């Protein structure tokens, strides 16, 4: 009966709101803010004038061409301070799907799965945005890199979380090859999964696969299935497509162990297109890995979007479709055949500090664009923080899901972090949000193992010098004048404080500025309240995990009363206090 009432409420809402849109969430892999619209700086995701001027000095041949992403930016809204839930793949994707910030999640880094793998099923009790829109009658499908399951038929399968159909790779352990021998699919109405074999990929050498049609390229096959689904979709039932490409990430040609032979990793694409060695000869370093990455952005990602728009227009549903383009984290430096490669070779980070796995802006800030003709005002931009974990509730609003619908309850648990920013999407200005919209946003990455290198190379970088968690807490109390970011880039690093609204390059650390003391304390208290400690790996760095917290502060900070439980800083030294907030320890 309750479900019937909410369906009735939805049907009542639709006429006032308008027909619910089709929704496409397109997620790129490891793509930084500087990699798109290099040829069109006026539609860039970079807003640092000095960095924009620097990019404009790049020779045209060196700039990645992304005409479709330029169109989406010109006709839609750019989010200039958009962030991933984490700076690495697994926790970022879990956070996107479930709408839960990483500090409240089980998956906080790569390596938190069985036997240290990156494969983790969606947590019990969590839902996905597929389940949200499914509750109001949407047809749903997911394609590409799922990355939120331990296998092909486990509890994390998309077909068990609101998606009618899936085609791609379920687990991280299945991904890594540009020309795979097998791709998988499932349907919600049937149990199990199907395996699709690609015998032409048994030998996926450079010599063979660099030819048209000789091998089956993973992202091209995903593209074909996604476009086929949209082509066959009913024009009377709205659909949601989650399209998660592998393009942007490093990959392998040969069918070899992706970690044991990591020196073979590169950026394989069927064609380099315009990015030939001769074309880039006078522009700087032009290895095959650099040119392959540039080609991947244009001929896979941007071409995916071009064909998507063409399909929507051919069906006459372009103006009835919301597209959200984003990336799972910042750019990497994993072109192992070219050990000198860095994101700076292609201006991937847009001049930001840090890369993938860093909690500096270059690791967490991502390119996000929303497009819906007639609803989202064209050529607009927002500087309000838009998080990947905001997407579920934003989609819910776009689809007309009643705000108090039971299906939204898993997304509104305490400290989940996500909010609906659909109203902001539709607005020309940021004035529709304020410091009261929410007090903070948060990103985190944790390391369960110690180490920097493997096989003498940075390969793959999924460990740090110490176990524990790195993080970035963005304090929004001063919005729209400032966005104060408390950041620890490694578990054993010192805290830093930046105003990333006015200092996106994180060049002026204000952590020792007495005028910022209140901001620093507020950010520390907020972080202590919004996350669950991982004491298995934080036992040496997080006071909440210490057996005798006050004794720690007594020896480390000069806390005078050994029996007390908390401290706060005063002008002269440290004094202990025992105060609580929301029943949580603030030490």
UniProtKB/TrEMBL annotation:
Report if keyword Protein biosynthesis is assigned. no
The terms under GO molecular function for this entry are: arylsulfatase activity; metal ion binding
Q: Which residues form the Sulfatase N-terminal domain?
A: 21-401
Q: Which UniProt keywords apply?
A: Calcium, Hydrolase, Metal-binding, Signal
Q: Do you know which Pfam families this protein is assigned to?
A: Sulfatase (PF00884)
Aminoacyl-tRNA synthetase found in the keyword field: no
PROSITE patterns assigned to the protein according to its UniProt record, in alphabetical order: SULFATASE_1
Q: Where is the signal peptide?
A: 1-18
What the entry lists under InterPro entries is as follows: Alkaline_phosphatase_core_sf, Sulfatase, Sulfatase_CS, Sulfatase_N
Give the family from UniProt. Answer: Belongs to the sulfatase family.
The name under which this protein is listed is Sulfatase N-terminal domain-containing protein
Q: Tell me which species this is from.
A: Mucochytrium quahogii
